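User: Hello! My lab partner asked me to get a predicted holo structure for this protein. The small molecule is zinc ion, SMILES included with the sequence. Please write out the structure tokens.
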Amino acid sequence: MSTRYAITSLVLLACAGVPAQAAAPAAPVQSITQIKGDLYRGSFGNWNTVFLVTPEGIVLADPLNVGFATWLKAQLDERFKVPVRYVIYSHSHWDHAEGGNVFAATAKFVGHENMLRNMDGRIPHMPGGFVDLNDNRAFEREEIRDRPTHPDYRGVCGSNFFARLDVDRDDHVTPAEYHANIRRPDIVYSDRMTLVLGGKRIELLHPGKNHANDGTVLVFPAERAVFSSDFPADALVTASMRSMPSACGNFDGHPLADWVRSYRTLEALDFDVLIQGHGSPTFVKADVAEGRQYFEDLIADVTAGMAKGLGPDELKQTVRLEKYRDWQNYERLREDNVVSAYYNLKLYR
Ligand SMILES: [Zn+2]
Ligand SMILES: [Zn+2]
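Assistant: Hello! Below are the structure tokens for the protein in complex with zinc ion.
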């Protein structure tokens, strides 16, 4: 059985995850869908979270943003009449982690230990090409772009990031502004953690570095379900996992070998349903295997070209990744994937 509430939200359209061609923002639709038993997915436009209802309270993954969290809390109070006891962050990036304060009266907050480093006042790990180039401990507009040819497909590399986060409108986004609506975790773990509430078990594990450096995968053993965010499905995934990776920031500043290891960690888990922070369907293990295969093919082809002495411009021509021609954004992002892989492999030998 699946219950769906489609309620139009008044929350401002959030910035990351919106393809550039998605022009004029319609208000994101907020909904709750039953996944299996007491496990539900909550959605805000193309952002998703999950929650598990137990007799002693609710375990919620990402709060997503203040507006969604406020709406969700009202829904949970009305339907389930038990409080949220835990909020578990998939990772610390603002477009998934904001809004936790809504649940602070009843919940403990859980995240990977690197979240504390990312929230200690220094510049945090950021998705894609966000780098504090001038080392002034803030982001300026010119620092949140990838290389000039990289499409601004997520809206994160342009004005939306500033519209949402530059609260004092001084054209600098400081770590304090960036974290203003992200509640710090009370409980952190390094490798794996087990949480039990109301007779239900939830396993947390850190898959390694990929899109983020503080990622958590949530495993719901009784429901045979897994939730993670932005890895493997990034913000460009909508209807299918057959979508070229964004490859922003030469793969978010983490070695491609770590990405592959992360995929294999996910593949080794025992599950039937994969729920992702982006994308309308749920996924299966074969989707993860395909994504890992893509990375392995990309690494192999670019490595072979580099061994022949080819540089990024030549590799763009020769590494065609034909097998993936029908993937979403193949035309738009193939060259970027190749060039990003080149710089990644050059840096992390
Ligand atoms: Zn992210
Ligand atoms: Zn995302």
